[in-house]
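WARN no homologs supplied; continuing
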Amino acid sequence: MSGVRAFRWVFVLGMVVAALGAAPVCAAPGPIFALAVDPMTPVTVYAGGANGTFKSTDGGATWSLTELTDPTYSLVIDPVMTDTVYAGTGSGIFKSTDGGANWSRHPTNAPINSLAIDFVTPTTVYAGTSSGVLKSTDGGANWSAVGLPNVLIYSLAIDSVTPTTLYTGSVAPEGLRVFQSTDGGQTWSPTGLTSAVWGVNSVFLTIDPVTPTILYAAHSGWGCDDDGCFTLGVISKSTDAGANWFDIDALMYRGSWVSPQPWPSALAVDPKTSATLYAAWSVLCDGFDANCQPANWTNKSTDGGTSWVPTGAIAAYTFAIDPVTPTVLYAGTESGVFKSIDGGATWNASPDPTPAPSPEPVPEPADTAPPDTFIISATDGDGAALPDQAITVSTSVTMTFTGTDNRAVARFECRLDGAGFSVCVSPLTHTGLAPGRHTVEVRAIDTSNNVDPAPARLTWTVDAPPDTSIISAMDGNGTALPDQAITLSTALTLTFTGVDDRGVARFECRLDGASFSPCTSPRAYTGLAPGRHTVEVRAIDTSNSVDPTPARHTWTVDAPPDTSIISALDARGKPIANGGITTSRTITLRFTGTDNGTITGFECRLDAGNFTSCLNPLTYTAVSRGTHTFQVRAIDNNGFRDPTPAIFKWTRTNDD
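OK structure emitted
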């Protein structure tokens, strides 16, 4: 972080940026927020800034102000008709078809933060605003909103191979988001990027022009956790079109949510060698923080962000790379445009397009201070928070973590249960964990390969839940009652047990879906209503882990049928009263039955005979003289018989 200069605060598009006082290629443009290099004539460069849009036709040696004097925050050039240029300004979108000599304003009154152009169909242009994305399919003549109406769009990135796929670097009501559209902006879905910060200051997005499934997002902001508040700047990378992200550079300051604020302010990818990246960083201070040391530096990576080396002290808002000779790049700063012709090793700070070599930079002192690592959160597979030393029945855990360093954290390494450390990213998930005690350790490694000597550690126990078994079930008559059985008894006694690796502490039972309550074995239920019943029993172990699959016993209490004798008639059809007298040798009895189910038959007997199946009505002939007793009982669909048969008595005297 060498080359520190005096700062002043500048507010741009809601972002706070720091300003350098060095002399650029040309000081006339003033603060520069956007750059665009002509893809066919790369010595032609456009620069947009607080004072308008400037143009250079000699690789930045000289600049002239175009007709557009509105503050300009974004520029794109038609890749086919390169005299066509679009400019996003604080008062809308402007277009030039003659290389910036003349500009026409297009019907968008919203401030424009970013622009993107379809490389295949360059009449299709997208614009990011403070309230969503606009799209034009006719070269900017007409614009329509295509989604994300409540989202602040900081930046846009378009797939160079499939230009109907584009991304937004944005802040939604729920926080930092990178959205993806695969249908030209008609529908949008969030990618997997999340952030530890609450207040997001900026989100800058760029896409690999060679491998467009690789994305980079530079974002900064502030947040608070159990260790206090912090400010954070991060560069994240995705290699799968945004589905998953990991951090490739980060800087955190603890102790305040205001100052110092690390800010990755610009990011660019080499158009030919996509493993080469450039990133600009600043550390911003407010006027009340006497201990804050502002700083600016530019980093370069030649391995896709795995490692970084400093290349200067440029406080850049934006980069642009010559597409033909990518060792030539431009940086837009507070003081104008800087240029490097050697891949960022040196930067031209004078109007001379071929400056003398810069003096050798003074090497920074050796970095021996190790980074520090923090575990932000841990949740089990059920989504429950998992503090250190906790116990869970879940066999998975997901952890998020971060690190701080006096320079920057380069990567993290993790290990589980004392195995070897290996490279990891946050969040980290372990699944299929065996029951028992587990420990995950995470250590940060900084850009000087210093390793955190005291890794952050989380220890917890996976507790196998107990298992519950029903030993026996008996009805009120002492009859064994298997599962799904039917009984006439309105009582049940259940015995049960449980097993657990730590020991069963207690049981809970419930009947027919009521709430679980403590119970012991045996458990008796009485006075049960007719119908289907279910008892569930679950064991709870000494760690308060509950059997997730309670033992269950289901049975049916069936009410017995009831039988009634309707009538008794002699041979002449004359009624005979119960207990009455008749001279007839013949009697016909009619009867019926009722049940909560259905009546399937009857059994009858006369005097001391056995019950046998009978039909209704039933006729007896040749009844002997004397007193007789008739009994009938109904049988229901479960095979249960009326325990109190209907009875009819009569006496036959002399023959009629």
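The chain has four domains: 9-340, 372-462, 467-557, 562-652.
OK
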